[in-house]
Amino acid sequence: MKKILTVALASCFALTGCLALGACDQGTDYDHTIVFYSSQGQDLVPVTDTAIEAFEEKYPGWKVEHSQPGGYDEVLSKVRTDLTAGLQPDLAYCYADHVAQYLESGTVIDMNKFLKSGESFTYSAGGQEGKVDRIGFTEADVASFVTGYFEEGYAKNFTGYAEAGLTADSLITLPFVKSTEVLFYNPDSLLTLGYKDEAGKPVPPTTWDELWAMCEKAKQQWPTCTPLGYDSEANWFITMSEQLDFGYTSVDPNNHFLFNNEKAQTWLQEMAGYYEKGYITTQEIYGSYTSSLFTKGPEEGGLVFCIGSSGGASHQAGTGFTTEVSPIPGIDDTHNQCISQGPSLVMLSGGNGASNPDEKQIMTFQFIKELLSVSFQAKFSRASGYAPMRTDVYDNEDFKLFVDGKDEDGKGLTGTNLVISKCVKASSNDEFNTRLFTSPAFVGSSTARQQMTSVVQYVLLGQKTPEQALRDAYKACGGK
């Protein structure tokens, strides 16, 4: 009787515990669960949930486990740690320099075998059977992918692909959504300063010379303001290395790091002068994204201009003014490159001991197809400010309205939604896409990027000379 009572109480306690926790963990069926890592914030996770729900409804018995370890660097760190234990995800957000590090593990999958496959596939999962009618994308789908974004994923853009058993034409990433840097500006401030066209509309700067002249005039008008905020010191340096052609990095394994040169020193010294005049601040120097300064306006000691990611458009809605968006300045009409960023997707094999690797890869690719569908790409872009990775999204009727600054009922957008709309419009046209560039990806390229953040900060603050800062960064990257 005592044993029966003990068992009964234990069972009751277990049941009560399960009810309190919501469910008892019976373990994850990793044979039929796709593990996906992203750096999405809580505002975008519910959007991605719609793609997960659509996938799971389409393929009963399959699940997606979506985790957010943190920002991009945290995703990189988590994947690298998991690779050492064989716990890597099936799919992950990535930057090119992340994948350069994953290649060493031999787990990066060449997605060419799925990309255009017209074959069908039958699966069995959780006691249910289902069918994939077509494993790959159609020719029309692939033709709609933005060429520049898509071609970033070829292995020839990465060092170390041959050692990983891949060829130059292996497709090791697919773009998810893309962002670039844009110039957010306060139109009311420009009108006050007299920068307007014949119709009385504000005219933003298109060159750096124009921008610095505007900053000088703004500082005279509002002495407590800092006219320009730049949210990424690294992006600033890398972008100017393209526009001024002074070099940043190279795929040449014997000469990866090009930034330690006199042209870079000259530019840094010039920027230090503008910093001394109070024309600019940066994220690291300010201690936060400079959008928080921009949104309050120059009258309150804020900014007139903010250069930041189009993917951060939701944080740029002004208080008391309507934020406008334009491409970042260039040196001139031909030296006006803009950095291409935003997450791509990489597939990894062998994680969590799945016993059906071939089936798992096929189904992971089906989830990728859901993420890259026209309907989801339109939905995610509207929510985030990122540009979609395929051109036919712009034929979507709701998306057309959105880019024109209207909601699905044709009413004018306001606030954050309007800024996101302007951001997507400014960073998504064919002419703008010709300005985009990416940096070479290799083991050590992420270190170079981190060092550029420090270089700009040291020089602006006067803690190091340009020559010293670049020399120290070069050594930190392994240069001699």
Could you characterize the architecture of this molecule?
Helix content is 42%, strand content 13%. The chain contains 20 helices and 15 strands. The chain starts with a helix and ends with a helix. Residues 1-25 have low confidence and may be disordered.
Short description:
With 480 residues, the protein is an alpha/beta fold. The protein has helices at residues 2-21, 45-58, 72-85, 96-102, 112-115, 139-144, 147-151, 187-192, 208-221, 233-243, 262-276, 283-286, 291-294, 357-371, 374-384, 397-403, 415-426, 430-433, 445-460, 466-476, and strands at residues 33-37, 63-67, 91-94, 121-125, 128-132, 174-175, 177-185, 228-230, 280-282, 305-309, 324-327, 338-341, 344-347, 387-388, 436-437.
From the N-terminal CA to the C-terminal CA, the straight-line distance is 79 Å
CATH class of the largest domain: Alpha Beta
Mind describing the biggest β-sheet? 8 strands, mixed
Number of self-contained structural domains = 2
Question: How are the secondary structure elements laid out?
Answer:
Blueprint: H1 2-21, E1 33-37, H2 45-58, E2 63-67, H3 72-85, E3 91-94, H4 96-102, H5 112-115, E4 121-125, E5 128-132, H6 139-144, H7 147-151, E6 174-175, E7 177-185, H8 187-192, H9 208-221, E8 228-230, H10 233-243, H11 262-276, E9 280-282, H12 283-286, H13 291-294, E10 305-309, E11 324-327, E12 338-341, E13 344-347, H14 357-371, H15 374-384, E14 387-388, H16 397-403, H17 415-426, H18 430-433, E15 436-437, H19 445-460, H20 466-476
Helix pairs in contact: 2-14, 2-15, 10-19, 15-17, 19-20
